[in-house]
Amino acid sequence: MNYPNQSNSRGTVPDTSHCGLAAVSKLCTVCLAVACVVSSWIVYYSGTVSKSAQNYEAFAMNTSQSSLLRPESTSLAMSDDATGRTNLIRTPKESNSRDTLARVHDIRSLEHLRKIESQDVTSPFEKLWPRYRLPRWARKDKNFDVAPERSICFVHVGKAGGSAVGCSLGFSLHCNGSKQRQGQLPKLTTSVFHKDVYNCHDNSAYFLFVVRDPIDRAQSAFNYERPSFSGDGDDDENVKELYVDCPFWTFEELIQNGVLSPEEVSDENKEGPSSETCHARAINSLHGTENHASHLYFNYQYYYEAVPQDAQILVIRNEHLVDDWNDLESFVGGKGKANRDVQSIPKSNSYPHSAEDLFLSESSRVALCHELCNEIQMYKSILERAVNLDKQQLQVSLDELKAKCPEEASAEICSDALPDISQKLAENRGYDTVHP
User: Fold this and answer.
1) What is d(CA 64, CA 305) in angstroms, rounded to the nearest whole number?
2) For residue 429, what are the β-bridge partners?
3) How many Cα atoms sit within 13 Å of 104 on the Cβ side?
4) Which conformational region is residue 370 in: left (phi greater than 0), alpha (psi within -120 to 50 degrees), or beta?
5) What is the pLDDT of residues 230-241, one digit of tens each?
6) Which of 212, 218, 329, 420 has its CA at a distance of 20 to 30 angstroms from the CA of residue 298?
7) Alpha-helical regions (H) of 86-148
């Protein structure tokens, strides 16, 4: 067939110019329609995501520019500077915002959880230490079917408000009648880690720390451990070595008589510094390297190094207990009345102290901040890694710390090396390769 006005060396070809224009026009129309549909779907989906995770993303977008984890999230590394002092270098911790958001969406989707019996709850502690049974206080009366990788492990740091939070979560250490609260947070928190009882699944979605200013926590721990001399044989010899054999009946005496050098001892303490042995006991107790007071021994370093290195950390701050609880309940998908009805959390395992017990002189405060430098760095790292705290909340806690220990709160270097606690971890936390 011959077509007019179109020929080349290979013969005659059809004139398709008018067809090409029509095809292009139709193709553009189709592409525009598809683009509109896709754009509408994206807008709808984005709105759905923001509604389903509005609380988390509010936290996240306030804390970073492009990542759902704060860019300043850090881990500690050690190196020696020219003076021989140990540098605690706050190196950026690898973050995976997609994984973090996925965890939040996953855990927030668990709205209808099935109750299960206590005997159906597996115990990592009993698997790790087959000769021992999990203590009664570490078991919950109300249990729900939550897979380990979607659960929360409660890290109960001593004298930081952990008993009050633990009782509200459903554990029973020092509860004095307090019961598990309603809400999603207690349901998802299925296990606990306290002192030498590590009952966490290493693949738990989150590890929930309750923390307190290190200075206040240390003083509270010291006062709590002081022997009662009840005559029932419960007073541990290691405890007596610190409180009785050495002149450390009050916390002020521990610092003045046990920490400060002779020329730094204040006029109020005429007895002067303690013996070399007592001096070592005071220093090592504060550093967590000798167990004369268990809540000083099981310190922030112990709990922080005991959880998996890639753990996703949540935090409830003792100084902001109720607000942080309510925010976390919303964070994990709590809905309805239980979401915001917590107006107070009853104190547990707390006792009144005399003015003498609570007194801390200015010279003692400065010396204590110095001795707790490594603890302060650990405390800062826990706060900085908390995915539920925004920048403003973090800064509030750092400012509170700076008011007591300005130098250590801003420091990146501690004069004392970070203690090697690998043996303490093996003996108390336990690992699969360690047998009792």
Assistant:
1) 26
2) none
3) 27
4) alpha
5) 444 455 889 999
6) 329
7) 97-108, 124-128
